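Deliverable D5.2: sample structural annotation.
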Amino acid sequence: MKFSELKLNEDLLESLHYMSFEEATPIQEQAIPIILEGKDLIGCAQTGTGKTAAFVLPILHKLIKGRKKGVIDSLILCPTRELAIQIEQQIMGLAYFSDLTSYAVYGGGTGPEWEAERVALSEGTDIIIATPGRLLSHIRNEYVKLDQLQYLILDEADRMLDIGFYDDIMKIIAECPAKRQSLMFSATMAPKIRKLAKEILQDPSEVNLAVSKPAEGVEQLVYMAHEEQKSGLARHIIKQHEDFKSIIIFCSTKKKIQRLVGALQRKGLNVEGISSDYEQSERERILLQFKARKTRILVATDVLSRGIDIKDIDLVINYDAPNDAEDYVHRVGRTARAAAKGMAITFVNSEDIYKFKRIEEFVDRQYEKLSAPEHLGESPKWEDGHRAKRRPTGRGGNKGRNFKGKRPFNKGGNNKPRNKGPRSNSNGDGGGKPKTD
């Protein structure tokens, strides 16, 4: 379905045309009409299917028709500062031809940034995008008024619950009017999500697409590898795919990131690492370099597995098998976004076999187990005692290209400065939560 068939405001259609977006994704096609009707909604779809635009477009449409000036009309809660920035950027592009304003509120900044957030919250902004802990810190100072709120959106609700934001979310919702439209989007539909939906949504409609399954366009490979083989295996794979221009490698710890980045840099590879230990300004610089293809390889913890809109990722390498099966879906979801092709490779050592069996059960698929190249030594064995099969060298699979549309800069005056000072001791949202990576 084309966006023009969804009866959206002409200003939004003009922005979509400018960005060369014509066809709605399935989640957008199903969710937008429901939201436009004013119904509460719980939406479940895998990473990379266009969930953000599925709620941003109809909310912008409604605000263009009837916003309340000088108040906070819409509140979008999300788990991380990276996702808050991404949502704000998407709003900037889609709201370009309107005079709507938005502002992202998240931790890790300096005093001037806190003051800028205070002004945006106290003087009224059409759309606030916030991490729960940071917003709650502002609410405690008694200048945040949510009593005129029309629209409440929880994005990546499952991740917010995983991090431990349930209490903060409920405290924030207590500040909102009972009469509002509430939307909740999640990549999974676990029982805890159902429970939260019953507490905050009223007679919601439901859109449920491809729950907890990697995108069809991803070629997924599994290599059995001892811990000491992983670095060499990563270099071997990268060498075999020299035409891959954008690669993300997920590690389980910050120390591993440092070691792997050093090892790859010593081999002359264009690589940088990123984790929650980096100052916010440095994290944003690294992400911008990677998005601009000035950095070929990015090594990261799960801070990047959800909510980062980086297009045209050719290859994702799970250097360590994720502890949670759901995180596998989100890591793999960094590639093959919006119907493109991509490759995802997971390294499994003998200690990871049980974890990966849970992943196979979760996605309802058995993967062929490949062995590392001979020059790296003997690979560990799967529990049945058989040696893993050796994959032929050379390129495997096809990669695709997502649409590279221009995202216009927002002229509505909601361009937030991004020069960060030292990060906070929390996970970056100012709410005192433990770090997640």
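Annotation notes: Residues 51-66 form the longest helix (16 residues). Residues 384-388, 393-437 have pLDDT under 50 and may be disordered.
The annotation will be released with the project's public dataset once the embargo ends.
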